[in-house]
Each structure stands twice: as structure tokens, then as C-alpha cells.
């Protein structure tokens, strides 16, 4: 998927009406960045999990087709949901990026991956493996709702969620 990225600041400036209507949402500035891609965009594939990354691995094992994996980890700061092995899977399987409402680990390994990754913080402990969670349902990134198929735009200035793909 070769699309030209438009900076999130320019998207906001050109779409004030969509922000006012809620069709374009600016996610609270709570995320840090990892991975080689500081800018990424694509349709959302959503997961809702809590301290269990079984579904994260399962999703990243499939061809991402340029999508962004949005993981609602409930904002937990007690373990990591994405690490170096999953970052490599995301790169290998054509994911544009990952946004985690939770933590990551193996940050040096994540920074070597050719994928964009946003998360709240780092944590050295791995998650549990219970196989619990939900896929392709509306999820939350803090106070911002993301629906499956919404478009995610992420760069150095922030993360945006749009009901539809925006034209350049």
C-alpha cells in the first residue's frame, strides 16, 4: 500500500469541520514512539485485551495488508503487550503500525523494526497467555473510540482517528 502520508498537523488544519463533528478525532497525547517508521497510516484492526497478548500475536501472524493494529490494553502499566518478536512479526507481515493503549518492551528490538509503534510506556515484564480478549470491536485509546476500519494517522505530532480515509 503506497500512500503519501500527510502530516497530522496538516490533516487537522484541513479538517476542522470533521473534528468539530467528531468524524475526525485527536487522540490524547499520551503515546511514545518506537520503530523505524515515525509516520504511518492505515485502516484499524482492533483488539481489546487486558494483560494478555495472545490475540496480539495471533493478529500479527496474519498479513496486515497495510493496516494498523489498535490494541486497547485498558491502559495497564503492569506488563507489556508488544515486544521485539511481535515487532518483527508486524514488519514481516505487512502491518503499517501498532498503537497500544498499554506498554511495550524490548524497545531496542522494536526500534530496529521497519514499522511504526506507539504505546504509553515500557515495561520489562511480559504479559500472560490466557487467550482472552476480543477482536474487531470498538475499542478505546484513552477517551477516544476506534472502530474496526476507522483510519489511523500517526506521526511525531500525534495520533488521529477518522471515520473514513481522508483525501490528501
Descriptive keywords:
single chain, 168 residues, alpha/beta, Glucose Oxidase, domain 1, ten-stranded mixed sheet, two-stranded antiparallel ribbon, 5 helices, 12 strands
Characterization of this structure:
By secondary structure, the chain is an alpha/beta fold. Helix content is 20%, strand content 33%. It has helices spanning 8-14, 16-21, 54-60, 84-92, 107-111; strands at 24-26, 32-34, 40-48, 68-72, 80-82, 97-104, 116-122, 134-135, 139-141, 144-146, 151-155, 158-162. Strands 1, 2, 3, 4, 5, 6, 7, 8, 11 and 12 form a ten-stranded mixed β-sheet that branches. It is globular, with a radius of gyration of 14 Å.
Radius of gyration: 14 Å
CATH class category label: Alpha Beta
Measured distance between first and last alpha carbons: 15 Å
Number of strands: 12
CATH homologous superfamily classification: Ribonuclease E inhibitor RraA/RraA-like
Question: What is the 3D shape?
Answer: globular
Beta-strand proportion: 25-35%
Structural class: alpha/beta
Average of the residue pLDDT scores? 96
| Count of discrete alpha- or pi-helical segments spanning 4 or more residues | 5
Secondary-structure arrangement, i.e. CATH architecture: 3-Layer(bba) Sandwich
Give the tally of structural domains: 1
